[in-house]
Amino acid sequence: MRTSRLIVLACLWASAHSVAASAANEAVTLAPVEVSAGLVNSPIFSTPASIDLIEGEQLRNASMQVDLSERLEHVPGLLIRNRHNYAQDLQLSIRGFGARSTFGVRGVRLYVDGIPATMPDGQGQTSNIDIASVDHIEVLRGPFSALYGNSSGGVVQVFTRPGDAPASLGATFTAGSENQRKLGIVADGATADESFRYLLSVNRYQTDGYRTQSAARKDTSNARLDFQVNDRHSLRIVANWVDLRADDPQGLTYDEAMSAPRQAAPNALAYDTRKSVRQTQAGIVQKFLPNPDNELRLSAYFGKRKTLQFLGIPRQAQLPPGHSGGVVDLTRDYSGVDMRWTTRLRLSGRPFTLAAGLAFDTLVENRQGYENFVGEELGVKGAKRRDEVNKLRSTDPYLQASWELTERWLLEAGARHSDIRFRSVDHYIAAGNGDDGGSVRYRKLLPVGAIQFRATENINLYLTAGKGFETPTFNEISYRPDATPGLNLELAPSTSTSIETGAKVRLENSMLAAAVFQTRSDNEIVAARSQDGRSSYRNAGRSRRTGFELGWSGSWKQRGKWMLSYTWLDARYTDDLAADFPGGDVIQSGNRIPGVARQNAYASISWEPPTGWRAGLESRVVGRVMANDANSAAAAGYFTASIFAGHVWKVDTWKIELFARVDNLLDRRYMGSLIVNAGQGRYFEPAPGRNWTAGVGITHGF
């Protein structure tokens, strides 16, 4: 492990030495790429925030094209880990926010074509992201994330590519270890005047799974239609659908994971733990341009997500009348509208941009619980034990202004006021289980501000500060720490104050970005205890996240690419917290926040011409990660390497691409992810050993 770290650090040092040499020469100005950090679009180099843009072609290059974790490992501050368990989704955190999530994504906002993939309560998922149709992804870290509202420790925005002329039809087939196979079809096109564009994508993925009880099937489809009504009016319609069925191997103890990493937890086999998800959503975005300096943007969306999950909760634990059972039957209907006006003015003779709007989101959740047994038969839907309707609405007015004070100084400021109301109506009232309904309201003003100094044409320096806000999700208030029935309405939202200073430097054929930051949080939401398959939550007082990020990427000889990134993050609790309930962890001041790697480094080099041979080498180092709040268990750090090669042919209107790659080239045994604060010490989810992927893609243009 030490040797592996030294290799990556040596690469970083050599690259830093090269930066110093290149800076002495005249830098080459790169083509500006605009990103949406907050509400005002600006070139990525001129944005006073930590933000990375990942092109869709980069995501699809030599990969299975199933998970974001395949190609986002290089983003500084982002820790994305594949659980190799499609019943629980990816483990995604930004600067430590979201690290506590045992399933799905929390603490980080997700968007797909402007439609939230994070519900108003802060619970998100990546299952509906279709990599085959992605144009680009933006990853925003730091204080400006607060302009997106609740649970914005960071923001990941996915944008589907528009159709283009001439029309094309493509098909891909990819296979890999553990009997993985994926078939995808993409069609896109546009009219001659580009007044109408379309893209349609359909995919099926299947795997037997690396571990026992981890097989999965995932069907996805995505559509985007663009209409240019006239010079001042455009309309976009987006829709996607996902149908997922996955077994759940659950977590292992450390000894189990090291001795037989492919095994499943005993209760996973006994109760046939599994999950099925079906989701459909659609949205519309309209833009009106009364004149070149003003824009009105109207968007609306709606969706339905149906989840049926069989847990491994022992039958004996479900006997108390207040227990909600071992089967979760959940239907979520969600919708929202967003209205935004952007105007470009001049203030004191200097450019001034102002954006103001209002977002309104709703969520109606029908949550039912059933026993996971009938008589002696386990893993089947039994008697009903829970029936409630949960409603949430969020009203968020927001404002952001950007003012170029001089040629060198830029000032940005904004604010968002979040008003979130939870309400639960209990329809299951029985002996020993009374009316568990209730309501709660959370409100918070989230101001942000930044100042940027353009030291030279190719060096930007900035300072940013702001406040953040994270409410508990419906899942986190669903169970009380004392095991009595009802919602945990005493759980308070977490608030945070962040400050960041950074620099962006353009060099010849490359760009370097570095940032130093600190976030102090109050009422950090942590697990109270995890017992008999149920996790409950409490507030843990104060915490502190201090870190440094470095990202550097560029090209060589026009066809070569390289990327380097490094993250150092010290995330700790700063208050003591006793174990209020049996099975809970004692938190001592200075304990590290679990699920957060203190160090994370990435390096890659590749040769990627439009046609001909392609090849690349990637490496990654992830430091030691604590598994629980008490810091009594941890996953060791690890080093992995990957290699890929392929060939691209273009013949007339045909394009043919072949590739093969090997991951975990050195066949290291390590923990792919952690189930933070899991019960019975079952924190660990082992990653596969050496594994392969190969694929072929054929596209025909018309």
Write a structural description.
It contains four helices and 41 strands. The strands form nine sheets. The chain has a 22-stranded antiparallel β-barrel. A five-stranded mixed beta sheet has the order 3-10-11-7-8. It has one domain: Beta Barrel (Maltoporin, Chain A). The protein is mainly β. The protein starts with a helix and ends with a strand. Strand 27 and strand 28 form a beta hairpin.
Question: In terms of topology, how is this protein built?
Answer:
Blueprint: H1 2-23, E1 34-35, E2 42-43, E3 50-55, H2 56-60, E4 78-81, E5 91-94, E6 105-106, E7 109-112, E8 115-116, E9 123-124, E10 134-141, E11 154-160, E12 168-176, E13 180-190, E14 196-207, E15 216-230, E16 233-247, H3 254-259, H4 266-270, E17 274-291, E18 294-310, E19 327-347, E20 350-370, E21 373-374, E22 377-378, E23 384-404, E24 409-426, E25 438-456, E26 459-470, E27 494-507, E28 510-522, E29 525-531, E30 534-539, E31 543-556, E32 560-573, E33 599-607, E34 612-622, E35 625-626, E36 634-635, E37 638-651, E38 654-663, E39 671-674, E40 684-686, E41 691-701
Parallel strand pairs: 7-11
Antiparallel strand pairs: 1-2, 3-10, 4-5, 6-9, 7-8, 10-11, 12-13, 12-41, 13-14, 14-15, 15-16, 16-17, 17-18, 18-19, 19-20, 20-23, 21-22, 23-24, 24-25, 25-26, 26-27, 27-28, 28-31, 29-30, 31-32, 32-33, 33-34, 34-37, 35-36, 37-38, 38-41, 39-40
